[in-house]
Amino acid sequence: MKRIAELRKEKHLNQIGLGLKLNVSQKMISAYESGAHQPSIDTLIQMSNIFGVSVDYIIGNTDIRTPVEKFLKDGLTSNEIELLDIFKELDNEKQQKALGILFALKYYEK
User: Fold this and answer.
1) Which has more pLDDT, 71 or 24?
2) Whole-angstrom distance, CA of residue 51 vs CA of residue 64
3) pLDDT score of 85
4) Taking residues 62-69, what's their average pLDDT?
5) How far apart are CA 61 and CA 71, in angstroms?
């Protein structure tokens, strides 16, 4: 749940401010951030809307912040989304190698 604190700080919100947006107390926000209490699904959805990230990102299931629905609305296929997901998991060196392979595939002539 450390991502809640990170996202809150990125939005320049203190715990009280986030609590007001979610209609919960500052103590509850503190409990979410420390892992002492788990937010409900409804609260996670509210957080995802406030922070502009997916619920999966908030709970740590993915490192991709943008909700998949946004990619789909922007016209990305499921293959493109999968490529982005894999690419983001690679370290910088492997990302550069992957880009090299993609450029080679793009410009390779038989």
Assistant:
1) 24
2) 13
3) 82
4) 75
5) 17
**Amino acid in position 17:** G
* Separation of alpha carbons 41 and 38, rounded Å: 9
Q: What is the DSSP string of the chain?
A: -HHHHHHHHHTT--HHHHHHHHT--HHHHHHHHHTSSPPPHHHHHHHHHHHTS-HHHHHTS-S--S-HHHHHHTT--HHHHHHHHHHHHS-HHHHHHHHHHHHHHHH---
- The pair of structure tokens assigned to 37 is 């209490």
Euclidean distance between CA atoms 66 and 106, whole angstroms: 27
Provide the pLDDT for residue 33: 96
Q: What is the largest CA-CA distance in the chain?
A: 64
Angstrom distance (rounded) from CA 61 to CA 29: 20
Residue found by looking up tokens 């002492």 in the block: 36
Q: What mean pLDDT do residues 25-51 have?
A: 96
Residues found in the chain: 110
pLDDT at 74: 67
